[in-house]
Amino acid sequence: MTTMSSHRRATPCRERFQDLRTAEALVVSVLRLWAEPLREPDRPHPHWQDGMTAAGLSNDAAVAFDTLMRIVLAATTRPLDLHRPPCPALGTDEAMLLDMLRLVQQDRHGEAGLLMNDWLPLAGVRMAMAPLCVLASALTRAGLQMPDPSDAPLTDRAIDRVNARRMERVQPVADRGATLLH
Fold first, then answer.
1. Angle at 108 between CA 103 and CA 111, to 5 degrees
2. How far is 121 from 133, CA to CA, in rounded Å?
3. 89-128 per-position pLDDT tens digit
4. Among 58, 69, 38, 74, which residue's Cα sits nearest to residue 131?
5. Is 125 contained in some domain?
6. Could you give phi then psi for residue 181, rounded to 5 degrees?
7. Closest among 64, 97, 98, 104 to 80, alpha carbons compared
8. Per the structure, how many domains does the chain have?
């Protein structure tokens, strides 16, 4: 029988952007570029969709990504740990998105939903699962498979970090998702 902690597999000691494989680096780069206009709305920013197009992803993937992140920002129960594009570190929530995509690519939707529950209440998880599945499918069709964490050892420190994040969950406030960390 699986336990709740077995579903919390985010961050198998992936702490640096340079350690990511191609599919992971693409998703994290797109996520960071997508979030930049939220941090500095008056500055011009690169189009986050360009990387997806260059990787051979359809417009459906871009729409699914945007929809997923808009749901997350609208309903999140805590600030997200998303880093700036040049940052060499990997944010906890960036790693969680990678793990959710990997789980969906492996047809483990329930486990992906459990991870997503760290971001969203149950109603938000229900709404966000469809665009997450569309995005994961588009990545698979483009040959961009998220690597399995069994390729890298899962450390106790990584598990402890995710469990600690879960325990420190804050209550929603007026600015639930617009606050991005780092």
1. 80
2. 18
3. 999 999 999 999 999 999 999 999 999 999 999 999 999 9
4. 69
5. yes
6. -85, 155
7. 97
8. 1
- Pairing state between β 180-181 and 80-81: parallel
Residue 139 lies in a domain: yes
Average pLDDT, the chain: 83
How far, in Å, CA of 174 to CA of 95, rounded?
26
Tokens standing for 44?
């011009």
- How far is the C-alpha of 162 from the C-alpha of 145, rounded, in Å? 23
One-letter identity of residue 5: S
Residue spans of alpha helices (H) in 40-155: 49-54, 59-75, 92-105, 109-116, 122-141
Q: What is the pTM of this model?
A: 0.78
H or E stretch at 160: helix 156-167
Of 7 and 23, the structure prediction assigns the larger pLDDT to 23
User: Domain span at residue 103?
Assistant: 4-39+50-169
How far apart CA 1 and CA 10 sit, in angstroms, is: 20
Decide: 170 and 77 in contact? Cβ < 8 Å: yes
Chain length of the chain: 182
